[in-house]
Amino acid sequence: MNKLLFYSITLLLPAALHATIRLPALVGSNMVLQQNDSVNIWGWANPSEKVTVFTGWDNRTTTVTTSGDAKWTLKVHTPAAGGPYEIRLKGSNEIVLKNILIGEVWLCSGQSNMEYSYYNGIRQIAAELPVCSNNNIRFFNIPKTTAPYFQDDCHASWEVCDSNSLKPFSAVGYFFGSKLQRSLGVPVGLINASWGGTPAEVWAPEHLVTGEPQLSAAAAKLQPAAWWPIKPGYAYNAMIAPLINFNIKGVIWYQGEANVNTADSYTPLFTGMIKAWRDAWHKQLPFYYVQIAPFTYDKENQAALLREAQARSSALAGTGMVVVADVTENVKDIHPQDKRTVGNRLANWALGENYGKTGFTWKSPVFKEMSISKNKAVLRFSNVPASLKINGKTPAALYIAGADHVFHEASAKVEKDAVIVWSKQVEKPEAVRYGFSNTGIGNIFSSEGLPVVPFRTDNWPAN
Fold first, then answer.
1. I need a surface site. Which of 111, 213, 311, 340 has the fewest CB within 10 A?
2. Residue 114: which of 253, 306, 310 has the closest Cα?
3. Rounded mean pLDDT of the chain?
4. Treating both helix axes as pointing N-terminal to C-terminal, what angle do 266-281 and 213-220 enclose, rounded to 10 degrees?
5. How far apart (Å, rounded) are the C-alpha atoms in residues 166 and 126?
6. Is there a contact between 116 and 293 (Cβ–Cβ < 8 Å)?
7. What is the rounded distance in angstroms from the CA atom of residue 324 to the CA atom of residue 390?
8. Contact by Cβ (8 Å): 336, 424
9. Nearest-angstrom CA–CA distance, 327 and 330
């Protein structure tokens, strides 16, 4: 054989062997694709290689040419919920994706109260294991990973919900998805990207934090830890950035405990993070989150101030906050056991706001305004469909103060959407606080059973 021809063939052979199409972990068998949408299918191949994609739900074939940087992407239209279907991809090799469902896809993220699972001793999940198998619920569980730059892939795979795949998955995420699946009657895909102990800074793009003096200063106060990252953007780069090509319906979030020492910057940080995620997905993603539970933190009112920052964040359009103080069993445990109620309340936000379900209430009552009538404070609330109620004979975690800024335990009575508050020790009321402490658990609810959001009417120093 001609030497030049021999060497040419030898040089070309490895390229031919490796010129195969490759898919990201998210695009795989068992996945759930967002219904009634134009979703992305993407991957890598040899530059200029043609990739053909056949979608089983409509028997259509779409072809795309790989770019010079070895990437390809195309959009396919999904129908209403259904399946299972196959997707066949062909280039120099062929890949067949099986058992694909079309339905609703949600991202679950945050720190330990989102991460906690059967392996963390959640008893409610242990009770679910014998009955949890459901082909219409699928999990994608991302391992803890960091990176200094945006990553385009992660190490995980889609799994059908059963007793084995549920054990390591987010308990809150599971109960959220399970209620959606039952209520909507469609497949639900859940992507879990959570990491115990992480501050919100690591879940935001780095430029958001470092480019804003207030946020940068707060991030500098974060203490290094052996079990989680503190560098801005590091979890976002490795655990969120790989997902942004994948169409999702929305996000649920449970985080804040790691930011109690920087509550004054949490609202701009958190709302900025939400906006950044929406920008990344090019979509006004619904974003529903959990207010942190009562716990015996070190410094007075630091949790109350963080909850206040979370409550302010709900002014951002398309967000909603779940209150969970009433399901806290032990204020010395930062991880409340009741994840079912948390997941169900998050699901109710999605069902009410995004899926048009009616016949139930999903918004907690929120303090609206205060007026003074003689020696009593009259508090009015929004999100009260019928009336308020006090569970028990006397109000809990309710305090009133006059001009001396000294708070006293208060008496109260309910009149429809108003709460009348007083104390014999306060002749001229100026401020009321409710559930405003690290461990305060109130007992004022809407008649539908949702707890009033903790609040204060003053802006006096609180720490």
1. 213
2. 253
3. 95
4. 110
5. 10
6. no
7. 17
8. no
9. 9
**Burial level of 189, CB count in 10 A (0-12/13-18/19+)?**
buried
Quick one: tokens of 374? 């003689």
Per-residue tokens: 36: 């009634």
Whether 170 and 194 have beta carbons less than 8 Å apart is answered as yes
What pLDDT does 19 receive? 53
- Of all residues in the chain, the percent with pLDDT exceeding 70 is 96
Q: What percent of the chain has pLDDT over 90?
A: 95
Higher pLDDT: 105 or 7? It is 105
Angle at 256 between CA 232 and CA 128, to 5 degrees: 115
CA distances from 289 to 109, 140, 280 (A): 9, 20, 19
Q: What is the mean pLDDT of residues 73-78?
A: 98
Contacts of 251 (CB under 8 A, 6+ apart): 106, 107, 108, 109, 277, 285, 286, 287, 288
Asked if residue 198 has pLDDT above 70, the reply is yes
| Residue 409 and residue 351 in contact, taking contact as beta carbons nearer than 8 Å | no
Per DSSP, what are the bridge partners of residue 53? 62, 89
Is residue 160 exposed (0-12), middle (13-18) or buried (19+ Cβ within 10 Å)? middle
Strand partners, 408: 400
Amino acid at position 276, single letter: A
379 has a pLDDT exceeding 90: yes
Closest to 86 measured CA to CA, from 96, 75, 72: 96
User: What's the CA gap between 463 and 460, in Å, rounded?
Assistant: 9
Look up residue 240 and give its DSSP letter. Answer: I
Q: What is the pTM of this model?
A: 0.95
Reported confidence tier of residue 13, pLDDT bands at 50, 70, 90: very low
Q: 3-state class of 434 per DSSP?
A: strand
Q: How high is the pLDDT of residue 12?
A: 41
- Tokens linked to 123: 């008893």
Residue type, 222: L
CB 218 within 8 A of CB 268: no
408 CB-contact burial (10 Å; exposed 0-12 / middle 13-18 / buried 19+):
middle
Residue 8 C-beta-side C-alpha neighbours within 13 Å: 5
Task: State the pLDDT at residue 18.
Answer: 52
Length of the chain: 463
Mean pLDDT of 195-200: 98
